[in-house]
Amino acid sequence: MREHQTLSDISFSVRRGQALGLIGQSGSGKSTIAKLVLGLAKPREGAILFEGKPVTPQGLRSFRKRAQPIFQNPMDALDPRMKIGDQLMEPLLANFRLPRSERLERIATALQDVGLSLEIAEKRPRQISGGQAQRVTIARALLLEPDLLICDEPVSALDMTVQAQILNLLCELREQQGLSLLFISHDIRAVSYLCSEIVVLHRGRIVEAGMRDDVLLHPQAEYTQTLIASVPKQSQRLPSAAGADRPILRELTDDGGPQ
Predict the structure, then answer these.
(1) Domain containing residue 239
(2) Contacts of 129 (CB under 8 A, 6+ apart)
(3) Full-model pTM
(4) Residue 102 covered by a domain
């Protein structure tokens, strides 16, 4: 289905150090919002604010260093002809004046932060798995020391177990590095897993927004209720990287609390 290009009355904030989930089905306008935030499209009205100030064309380069994207298909985001290490070196060369030793140290640290060894730097994308490739794209984003990660369907191309591993990684990075996340997805399970606040988008409009438990346990909008009901009960849990299940959509007990 083609993504709608018309958005109306869209307004939300990503709090510092928190993850906000933007959820909606195909055609709801999610990808359009990602493009607007990244400066890949211009709004006809309104503005994108960062730390309370409008992101202007003149300030776009500086903003993009502090707001890094993570895309849906990591293999599309990596050059198949280049070694991983060379691709990680590029943003450092373009944005910092650092001696080679410090660049290599930053690359090693970024790879370690995402659970990869330095040996992967000598490989090309076709030699690594999809999960490893997504970790590489996250490491590349971290090299610029961003404040905000804009994650546009970052796990939808991965299998269930790898999805949970990447979601756990994003949770850890947010907690350890104080990152803010705008997490865009059609999967309400993934949004519930990662995000403390949720915005529900339908046909270019926000139909519901609030804290995760309020939205998922007490949905007000009919569309939100439909999204929750569409998740098969047996699929309402994702395995964590440690092997223990983490609840996604929590069932309610008779007294209204989560089981």
Answers:
(1) 19-247
(2) 162
(3) 0.85
(4) yes
